[in-house]
Write a structure and sequence with these properties.
single chain, endopeptidase fold (from Nostoc punctiforme), six-stranded antiparallel sheet, two-stranded antiparallel sheet, 6 helices
């Protein structure tokens, strides 16, 4: 619009100055409004990211703590092979299912199957976190599973003690500790954050408006 006006003849410029000026002003306002509207979703989503991830980091830590607390509350429950009811007795894998079911986490039934769920973590206590699953067995077979609660300790349904107990990984003479195979992580902030990041990218592609605050904030999974 501006280039066309500059290129017009003096007579055309004189006759159309007023109308062209009004049109240019209206076009400028429309363009500004359009630009502002287009920027709103991007700004809303960008602003939501750090807040969501900060809250996510705190909630992941709180979830791990809650899982440990539930595991500790389970100490003393009777061991029962094949047991699924904490009032009657649980075996090792049923104990893990009992703990995490309170947090809407669903696991398969056996220790062998549970050992394939989540992310594999090195057997390095500096990298392990409370709430991680510890697997035990011989060869390629997983025969036992427990929950790590931090500081080298874990909770499991012991076949020898016939109840849910807390044990230490520092007892090297323990046959169970010698059979420690690996670590699996069910609650991982990186994985969840990546999932939310994908959601934000999806919102970007839809052009979510800044006025819809519910769309820019991750909901409960």
């Amino acid at each position: 619009m501006v280039a066309a006006f500059v290129a017009a003849t003096p007579v055309q410029a004189q006759m159309g100055a007023s109308s062209s000026g009004n049109a240019a002003s209206a076009a400028s306002r429309a363009e500004a409004a359009e630009t502002s509207g287009a920027a709103a979703p991007r700004l809303a989503v960008d602003a939501a990211r750090p807040r969501a991830f900060a809250a996510l980091s705190a909630s992941v830590g709180a979830l791990r703590d809650s899982m440990v607390a539930r595991a500790q509350q389970s100490i003393g429950i009777k061991y029962l092979l094949g047991g699924n009811n904490p009032l009657r007795g649980l075996d090792c894998s049923a104990l893990i299912r009992h703990i995490v079911s309170a947090f809407d986490i669903s696991l398969p039934r056996t220790a062998q199957e549970q050992a394939r769920v989540g992310r594999e973590i090195p057997k390095d206590r500096s990298q392990m976190k409370p709430g991680d699953l510890l697997t035990f067995g011989k060869g390629s077979r997983i025969t036992h599973i427990g929950m790590y609660i931090g500081e080298g300790r874990f909770i499991h349904a012991s076949t020898s003690k016939r109840r849910v107990i807390e044990s230490s990984l520092d007892v090297k003479s323990s046959s169970l500790v010698r059979e420690w195979k690996g670590v699996r992580r069910l609650v991982d902030g990186d994985l969840v954050a990546a999932r939310y990041d994908s959601m934000f990218a999806f919102l970007d592609s839809l052009g979510v408006t800044g006025g819809d605050s519910s769309a820019a904030s991750p909901g409960r999974r």
